[in-house]
Amino acid sequence: MSSEAKIRLDRVEKKYHGTSVPAVEELSLDVHEGEILVLVGPSGCGKSTTLRLINRMIEPTGGKIYLDDEDVTTVDPDKLRRRIGYVIQQIGLFPHQTIAQNIATVPRMLKWDKARIAARADELLHLAGLDPEIYRDRYPKELSGGQAQRVGVARALGADPEIMLMDEPFGAIDPITRERLQNEFLRLQAELKKTIVFVTHDIDEAIKMGDRIAILGERSVIRQLDTPERILAFPVDQFVDDFIGAGSTIKGLNFEQLSGLRLGGYPTIRSDQSPQAGLEALNESNKTWLLVVDEQNRPMRWMREGDLQQSTGSYQDEGSEVRIRLNAEDTLFDSLEQMLQSESGSCCVVDRHGALTGVVEMAHLRRAIRRAQVEARRHYEDLEDNA
Amino acid sequence: MDGFSSWFAYVGDHWSDVLTGTLEHARIVAIVVVTATVFSVILGILVERHPAARAASLSIAGIFLTIPSLAMFALFIPLVGIGNPPAEIALFLYAILPILRNTVTGLDSVSPAVVESAKGMGMGNTQQLLQIRLPLAWPIIMAGIRISTLITVGIAAIAVLVGGDGLGGFIQGGLTRLGLPNSYESVWVGTIFTVALGLVLDILLSLAQRLTTSRGLRI
Ligand SMILES: Nc1ncnc2c1ncn2[C@@H]1O[C@H](COP(=O)(O)OP(=O)(O)O)[C@@H](O)[C@H]1O
Ligand SMILES: [Mg+2]
C-alpha cells in the first residue's frame, strides 16, 4: 500500500512551542504519485502547518513523514527542500535578482553548469507563458501580480522536482487572473504529472484543482477525504456540508459529462415532412415541444402544438430557433445553464457534424444527481462494512 | 573680502600642511569607519534575532554616543598612550550605533516571505544571509555607514587634543593664538577642510552605494 504513496504522513503531530493544543493532531494521510491533493479547511485549522511539515520547514513533535518510503527526518533538510517545489501565497521572489536568476535558484545550488542553467530558465519562462527575451532580465518589481505568481511557480519547478507544495498560491490574485492561473496550472500539471499538495481555504478552488480533497477541521483533523465528485454528492457530516456551502449539488454537475447520460427518444420531424406528421409525433410522445431537423439531422427549430397547427410547412421563422447545441464532452453544468435560458427548458446535444444525438431535460439531471448521491452513499457504506 | 583673500593666502602659504592634515584626517576616518563597519555589521547579524542581546547592544552603542567626546578621547590614554590610537578607539565607539542600528533595521526589513521562500528552496542559513538577507539590507546598512562617516569626520578634529593627527591641529592652533595674526584663518582652514572632507567622502560613499545596490532595489 505504501508503494503507491509518494508522500505519507503517519500519525503526525505538531505542537508549537508554548502552546497546549496541537496545531496538527495525529494526522495520517497518503498522497499518491501524480495527483493534486488539496488540503482545504477554515482559516487557522492547520493547513500551512501540515504542508510545512512535509518539507521540514518545521519539525513534527510526533509521528513520521515519508517521501518515497524514506523517512524525511533522516535526510539533510536543505537537500530535501531542493527536491521539493514550494510556492507560497506571498510568492517571495528575490527583489534584487532578475527573473532568470530567481528561477535558477535551485539549479544554481545544485551546481549545474552555466549553459544548462540559462537554458532551463528560458524553458521555464516559456512554460510560464512569459517570453524569455522580454522577461529574463527584468526585476520582480517590474511584474504584475499574475506574472510574479507565474514566476514563483516556475522557480519552484527549477530543478524539476517530483513533488510540489503550494500554500494558497493564487490567494492574493484578483478573481479573473486567478481563474486564468488555475486553468494554466491544470494544463501544465496534465503534462508534468507532479505529486502536488495544494492548500487553500476556498472550497471552490479545492473542487476545481483537486484530484482528491481533504477537508480539514480544527487541529488539521481530516473530516472527509475523497474525490470532489463524491464529497459534493455525499458530505459525510454537518461540518463538511456547511463547509461546502450552498449549491453543492449544482457544483457536482461539473463533474459529469453529457456522454454519461442515457437520453431517451424525443419527438422530431425532418424539415421536408408535413406539420401534420409533426402533430402526430408530438401526440405519440407526451412532450410539449418537438424538434425540426434538417436533411443532415441537424436541429433547427423548437415547435409547440400551436406552432405546428399554424405552420405553413416551411418552418422558417416558426416556433423558436435552436440556438445552443452542446457536445457529448460538455458537462451537465453546461447543459443546466443552457436549459435555464432556453424557452423549451431542454437542450440539444449534437455530434461533431452537428447532427442531433439527444435532448437533455431536467429529469435527466435529477436522475444523474440522484445516481451520484446513491453511488457515493453506497461507497461509504461499503467502507464502513469493511472496517 | 579681506577675510577671504587672507584665508586664501593662508591656504597658499600652508598648502602642504593643509594637504597633510587632510590626508591624516581621512586616514583616521577610514580606519575607524572600516573597523566599525566590520564590527557593527557582524554584531548586527549576530543579535538581530535575539531580542535581549539586540536591545542590550543597541543601548550600549547609544550610551557611547552620550559620553562627552573630550572625556571619551582621554579615557583611553592610560591604555594605549597618546597619539592616534586613543582617538581612533573613541571614534570607533561613536561610529558603532548608526551602522549597528541600520544593520538590524535593514535585516528586519527583509520580507519574511522572501526568507521563507529562500529557506523553502533549500538555502542554508549562511546562504540565506549572504545571498538574500544582506544584499537586501545593504542599502540601509550603507546609509548607516554614511552617517557614521560624517560623525567621525567631525569629531575626529578633537584627536589633536590627545596627540593625534588631522585637521584639528589647525583649529586648536588658531584657538590658542586667538586674536593674533592668522589665528582665525587657521581655525577656518581646519573647519572648512573638515567639512569638505565630509562632503567628498559622502559623495564617494553614495556612489559606492549606487554601484553596490541591485537595480531591482533602486526606486
Ligand atoms: N509559529 C507558530 N507558533 C505558534 N502557533 C502557531 C505558529 N504557526 C501557526 N500557529 C498556530 O497553529 C494553528 C494553525 O495555523 P496554520 O497552520 O497557519 O493554519 P492555516 O494555514 O490552516 O490557516 C493556528 O492556531 C495558529 O495560530
Ligand atoms: Mg495558512
UniProtKB/TrEMBL annotation, chain A:
GO terms for molecular function: ATP binding. This is ABC transporter ATP-binding protein. The keyword Repeat applies. Keywords: ATP-binding, Nucleotide-binding, Repeat, Transport. Belongs to the ABC transporter superfamily. Residues 7-243 form the ABC transporter domain. InterPro entries: AAA+_ATPase (IPR003593), ABC_transporter-like_ATP-bd (IPR003439), ABC_transporter-like_CS (IPR017871), CBS_dom (IPR000644), CBS_dom_sf (IPR046342), Gly-betaine_transp_ATP-bd (IPR005892), P-loop_NTPase (IPR027417). It comes from the Bacteria. The keyword Repeat applies.
UniProtKB/TrEMBL annotation, chain B:
Residues 22-205 form the ABC transmembrane type-1 domain. It comes from the Bacteria. InterPro entries: ABC_transp_perm/SBD, MetI-like, MetI-like_sf. It is a multi-pass membrane protein. This is ABC transporter permease. Its main location: membrane. Pfam families: BPD_transp_1. The keyword Nucleotide-binding does not apply. Belongs to the binding-protein-dependent transport system permease family. It is found in: Cell membrane; Membrane. Keywords: Membrane, Transmembrane, Transmembrane helix, Transport. The chain crosses the membrane at residues 25-46, 58-79, 91-115, 136-162, 187-208.
